[in-house]
């Protein structure tokens, strides 16, 4: 069945239609400077397609929450949910086919990227049985897939960019059709923009953006000047879902409107006679008082019972401080390994948030007398990744394991431990870990997601997975030429279930 979405009118007055089924297979990129009508275009597309396909909107400014009242979208306020909660929300939205708006308004740039990545990850990681068709609309996509590093941390940028790349590069087979809108093509990561086959280009003024828009539409460079003359709501369209030749169209009206209307001129009020007294009045007494001095924090009971120890810093394996001797450093590493082993012994450890694990780890360090020398959160993440892979702190000092860690660094942080686990099994000649063990190390109960992690590593050229004649899996680490012994991929599934 072909579903034609009416987007507006062409320059000749004919209806401008978009083939929704073709869009689901080929994705869409929208560009236009602020005020060109991008959000209006996205709203028109969402309204017209709402009866036909599930939708998810990544909304950095809260513009699309008004879709909820008329079209039944569930508004998810990202400010009140954790990253783990948003990932689960994304999975459940796909399972139950509920259209959603992820409202990121009120969050700083760092948290917008982290929460959007978590939600997109949830949409992406559902089981194959739930790969229903879905439009995933990302407004201001240059924020979530930046071409260059900005003011946010590298970790947040990599998480968001990885999620956007998955959406645009690998989402089609999972039923996800990315629709991304950006103010500037030059600010959008090329590997994300390159996956779109349909384009709607609005008004833009910078030469570099006009040149890229002309190239994408197959226009000559001298024709690029036309993008400066486009009116608000007018776009040039090209793509299998729109037109085989560049087509000028005007977007039609929408039934809903953004909460934030475009500012309009208003007459100035009459001049105030006492303006100086009102504007420059002294602040109220309660705000003019000096801030109250806070009492110093009372140390917790465990801290009072412990003797203070010199602070240490993580470097290389875990800790480099000013220990009196190498023996003391080795002892400290051994104690940390014991603490991590006790932490990992909990069957539910793999499914707990990193912050909860870290707090548990700190308490155990205090009990062992390492409170002042406990690693920070970043060091703990790396220690946990190594410990889940079954590599001791002492073994991690080996040059071979340093090489493994360097190769694992190209993967997302949550996959690095899986790569090191496979490397550990391969180096020792042990059987390949089963899906249940991989899923637990990845922090999920989904065996399908564990298999997709292996598929992703294979696509990156890091490993090769093979089955022997008995159906047992063998994983070979490509550049290291290490291979695991054959292992049953279904081992431990009954226990995991």
From TrEMBL:
Q: Which domain of life is it from?
A: Bacteria
One Pfam family of this chain: DUF87
> Which InterPro entries does the UniProt record give?
ATPase_Atu1862_pred, HerA-like, HerA_central, P-loop_NTPase
Any idea where the Helicase HerA central domain is? 7-72
Please list the GO terms describing molecular function.
Answer: ATP binding
Check the record and name the Gene3D superfamilies matching this protein.
Answer: P-loop containing nucleotide triphosphate hydrolases
Which positions, given as ranges, span the membrane? none
Keywords of the record? ATP-binding, Nucleotide-binding
Q: Name it.
A: ATP-binding protein
């Amino acid at each position: 069945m072909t579903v034609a979405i009416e987007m507006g009118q062409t320059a000749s007055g004919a209806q401008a239609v978009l083939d929704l089924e073709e869009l689901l297979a080929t994705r869409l990129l929208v560009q236009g400077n602020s005020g060109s009508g991008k959000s209006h275009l996205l709203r028109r597309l969402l309204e017209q397609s709402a009866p036909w396909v599930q939708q998810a909107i990544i909304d950095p400014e809260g513009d699309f929450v008004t879709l909820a009242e008329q079209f039944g979208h569930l508004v998810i306020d990202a400010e009140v949910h954790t990253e783990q909660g948003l990932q689960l929300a994304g999975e459940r939205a796909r399972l139950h086919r509920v259209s959603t708006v992820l409202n990121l308004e009120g969050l700083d740039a760092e948290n917008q990227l982290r929460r959007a990545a978590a939600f997109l990850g949830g949409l992406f990681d559902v089981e194959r049985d739930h790969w229903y068709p879905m439009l995933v609309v990302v407004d201001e996509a240059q924020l979530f897939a930046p071409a260059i590093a900005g003011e946010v941390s590298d970790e947040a940028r990599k998480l968001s960019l990885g999620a956007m790349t998955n959406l645009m590069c690998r989402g089609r087979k999972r039923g996800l059709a990315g629709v991304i809108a950006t103010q500037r093509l030059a600010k959008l990561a090329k590997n994300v923009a390159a996956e779109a086959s349909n384009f709607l280009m609005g008004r833009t003024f910078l030469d570099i953006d006009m040149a890229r828009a002309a190239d994408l539409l197959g226009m000559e460079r001298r024709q690029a000047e036309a993008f400066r003359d486009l009116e608000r709501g007018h776009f040039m369209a090209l793509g299998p879902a729109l037109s085989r030749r560049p087509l000028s169209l005007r977007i039609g009206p929408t039934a809903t409107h953004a909460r934030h209307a475009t500012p309009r001129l208003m007459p100035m009020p009459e001049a105030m006679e006492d303006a100086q007294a009102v504007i420059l009045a002294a602040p109220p007494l309660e705000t003019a008082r000096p801030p109250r001095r806070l009492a110093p924090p009372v140390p917790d009971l465990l801290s009072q019972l412990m003797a203070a120890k010199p602070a240490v810093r993580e470097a290389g394996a875990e800790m480099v401080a000013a220990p009196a001797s190498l023996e003391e450093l080795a002892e400290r590493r051994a104690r940390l390994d014991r603490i991590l082993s006790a932490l990992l012994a909990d069957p539910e450890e793999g499914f707990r948030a990193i912050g909860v694990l870290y707090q548990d780890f700190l308490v155990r360090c205090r009990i062992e007398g390492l409170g002042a020398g406990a690693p920070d959160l970043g060091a703990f993440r790396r220690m946990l990744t190594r410990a889940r892979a079954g590599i001791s702190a002492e073994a991690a000092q080996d040059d071979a394991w340093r090489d493994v860690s360097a190769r694992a660094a190209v993967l997302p942080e949550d996959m690095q431990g899986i790569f090191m686990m496979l490397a550990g099994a391969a180096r020792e000649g042990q059987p390949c870990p089963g899906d249940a063990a991989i899923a637990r190390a990845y922090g999920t109960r989904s065996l399908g997601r564990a298999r997709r992690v292996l598929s992703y590593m294979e696509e990156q050229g890091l490993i090769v997975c093979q089955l022997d004649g008995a159906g047992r899996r063998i994983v070979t680490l490509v550049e290291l030429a290490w291979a695991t012994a054959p292992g049953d991929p279904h081992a431990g599934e009954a226990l995991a279930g």
